[in-house]
User: Fold this.
Amino acid sequence: MTEKKRAAILISGRGSNMSALIDAARAPDYPARIVGVFSNRAGAAGLQTARAQDIPTATLAQSRFDTRLDFENALTGILEDWGAEIVCLAGFMRILTPEFTQRWAGRLINIHPSLLPDFRGLNTHARALAAGVAEHGCTVHFVTPGLDEGPAILQARVPVLPGDTPETLSARVLAEEHRLYPEALRRVALDGTSKPGGVIT
Ligand code: GAR
Assistant:
């Protein structure tokens, strides 16, 4: 195999998608390796998980910076120190500036808990239930300046079942997220890009 791509992960909390990526990247034939985990919240549980696996971690508090751009320039410095070639947002709950998304264009990917373009933004599971959709799911997409707007790399679908609550639906989608994200990163690391709109079953 050609050399593995160096991937960094950005989190804000629990980090279960981060763990799915770390686990997948342990396989000898996986085309990416995880070079660092960054969080904008020092208390993010996922940081402990990453440290326990000897993965470098870093945090920066926005409050230390005058502007979003200053914060993001410091973040880019960390990512460059790690030699990151691909940046994976995994529950990173912070809007990024167009300058940052353009700086990492084509190499910045995100997982979102809906079948984009449906239900951009927050509270996707409750909104899917309120809309009465029969199917819900998750999307890994390239990040562009518009919120949850970039081209989809892969999607996974789940049925909405009678009696579902936001919690039961969220758990069904999360299990799919943990399959979807490693497969999407694998494709991006191999191809540099991927065919938009693919679905895994
Ligand atoms: C995941 O469900 C992810 O799709 C979502 O946050 C959760 C993070 O969980 N991301 C977004 O809503 C981004 N708009 P995790 O920290 O356990 O991976």
The longest helix spans residues 166-191. The radius of gyration is 16 Å. The domain at 110-201 is CATH 3.40.50.170 (Rossmann fold). Helices lie at 16-25, 45-52, 68-81, 98-103, 124-131, 166-191.
